[in-house]
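Key result, reporting period 2: structure in, sequence out.
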């Protein structure tokens, strides 16, 4: 029987009206609508005309029998269609638009005139430019991204995808712009997507060209030999951190927070019909939950609230985060079989709340100071410790962070951390990391000098389940480049330590803390010392 897709769609409606529990009909309806919208068939020219009617249709099923899951799956598909944009968008960058960056060729002993938020120490003669998109893209190059500055020409820049799977598509891309101490001041303008070539993994073109600019000041300063370098030595003690927000308001660089995200060009996700549709759904599900205690209703309301919040570009109304956090807390109690999922979502919402505006973020900003370092010239440390985080997120708002304390959480993975290209010091102390493959994103952090992974669970489990999170064990990046000539260091065989080998061989650490892990015996420490010749301190002890 040769029926049109429109006729098939009408047939699914008849089947659903006969039986709301017809999962196959709901699924087929989503496939048919996707095809009709993609073809822009008559009557299906835009989501704006189609999806609101579909919401009304699905309400009949959900409100008639809230315990029937078939309709909920279709509602989840509708929500995805409402918030998803086909064309990729640039949502954040480092440096951020309008920022004034100070590049210091070496450590100083007094730079009180400069902001620790926008000061970067570099001895490599270059600094990173980071582009953060809302989805994975391909085709970022000197042809599709032009950089104009007094330092260098765009054709000399090499853009690399920050993908731990070695894919040529990534959500985050980085290039390093070289600078010279003979050119102390320069304006930099970056134009993204003015030439075609950037595409999503689904084949959609980058359709909203963006422009952002910033200023760079280079200050070559000779190091005071008596001054310690915070980038090479950190004691993660409470007494060594001073709350930055307690200082005078004038010293706080508002630009660093107000311009973390880019909002260039049209914003298709912010169109009125989308916001109106979500607002109406939120009202409906609040009404449903006032009548009954429904697990999937709570989950759907949480998703709707966060989708609606993502369309709000101001931080004036962030009460939504508290409501969503409460919903996920309830779900952890109501549905313990899916506890970890709700816990992960709770963590992501909490991070959105922390980074939602300047005031909330400053509560977690500290300056590091010990007996040998100056609190004035050290960069800001973002302390997200003791928050019960099981998953990391909000990376698009954290690109500026150089020192990060994630200690005393419940992290089993640090997926996404590779976006934080400025990171020089990182504490993952007292988490639930089970293996070295969970640290794979660290291989992309070329500025990392201080790492604390003490008191985790590394070595307690004989099988590393994280390697199977990818499509195939053979596709995982860790170990894919194994060289049989590298199986021995000195008189120690590396076969039993290959995961650690591939993580640490690419790092230039100065300080490492690994005590409190099952694997951290003397033989393993010997391997680390031989593997990383740059290492100066291991588990608090200076190396000769």
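The corresponding designed sequence is given below.
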């Amino acid at each position: 029987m040769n029926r049109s897709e429109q006729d098939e769609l009408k047939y699914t409606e008849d089947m659903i009206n006969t039986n709301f529990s017809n999962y196959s009909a709901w699924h087929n309806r989503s496939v048919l609508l996707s095809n009709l919208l993609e073809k822009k068939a008559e009557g299906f020219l835009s989501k704006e005309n189609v999806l609101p009617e579909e919401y009304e249709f699905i309400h009949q099923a959900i409100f008639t029998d809230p315990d029937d899951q078939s309709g909920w799956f279709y509602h989840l598909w509708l929500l995805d269609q409402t918030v998803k944009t086909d064309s990729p968008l640039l949502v954040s960058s480092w440096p951020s638009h309008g920022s004034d960056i100070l590049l210091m060729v070496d450590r100083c002993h007094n730079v009180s005139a400069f902001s620790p938020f926008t000061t970067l120490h570099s001895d490599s003669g270059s600094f990173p430019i980071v582009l953060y998109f809302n989805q994975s893209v391909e085709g970022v190059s000197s042809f599709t991204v032009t950089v104009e500055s007094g330092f260098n020409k765009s054709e000399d820049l090499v853009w690399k995808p920050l993908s731990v799977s070695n894919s040529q598509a990534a959500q985050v891309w980085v290039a390093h712009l070289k600078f010279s101490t003979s050119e102390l001041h320069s304006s930099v303008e970056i134009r993204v997507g003015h030439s075609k070539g950037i595409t999503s993994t689904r084949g959609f073109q980058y359709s909203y060209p963006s422009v952002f600019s910033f200023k760079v000041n280079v200050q070559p300063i000779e190091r005071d030999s008596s001054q310690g370098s915070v980038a090479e030595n950190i004691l993660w003690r409470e007494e060594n951190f001073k709350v930055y927000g307690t200082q005078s308001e004038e010293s706080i660089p508002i630009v660093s927070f107000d311009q973390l995200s880019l909002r260039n060009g049209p914003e298709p996700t912010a169109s009125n019909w989308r916001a109106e549709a979500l607002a109406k759904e939120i009202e409906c599900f609040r009404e449903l939950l006032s009548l009954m205690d429904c697990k999937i209703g709570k989950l759907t309301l949480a998703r709707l609230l966060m989708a609606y919040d993502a369309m709000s570009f101001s931080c004036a109304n962030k009460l939504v985060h508290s409501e969503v956090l409460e919903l996920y807390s309830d779900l952890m109690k109501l549905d313990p079989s899916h506890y970890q999922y709700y816990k992960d979502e709770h963590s992501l919402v909490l991070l959105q709340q922390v980074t939602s505006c300047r005031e909330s973020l400053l509560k977690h900003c500290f300056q590091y100071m010990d007996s040998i370092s100056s609190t004035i010239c050290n960069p800001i440390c973002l302390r997200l410790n003791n928050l019960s985080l099981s998953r990391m997120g909000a990376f698009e708002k954290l690109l500026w962070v150089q020192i990060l304390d994630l200690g005393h959480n419940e992290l089993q993975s640090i997926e996404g951390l590779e976006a934080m290209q400025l990171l020089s010091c990182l504490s993952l102390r007292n988490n639930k990391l089970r293996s070295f493959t969970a640290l794979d994103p660290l291989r992309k952090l070329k500025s990392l000098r201080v790492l604390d992974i003490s008191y985790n669970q590394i070595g307690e489990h004989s099988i590393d389940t994280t390697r199977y999170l990818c499509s195939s064990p053979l596709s995982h990046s860790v170990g894919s480049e194994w060289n049989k000539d590298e199986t021995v260091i000195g008189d120690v065989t590396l076969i039993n330590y290959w995961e650690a080998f591939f993580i640490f061989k690419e790092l230039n650490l100065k300080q490492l803390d690994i005590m409190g892990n099952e694997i951290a015996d003397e033989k393993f420490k010997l391997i680390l010392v031989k593997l990383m010749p740059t290492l100066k301190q291991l588990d608090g002890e200076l190396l000769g």
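The longest strand covers residues 126-138. The chain has twelve helices and 21 strands. This case is discussed further under Risks and Mitigation.
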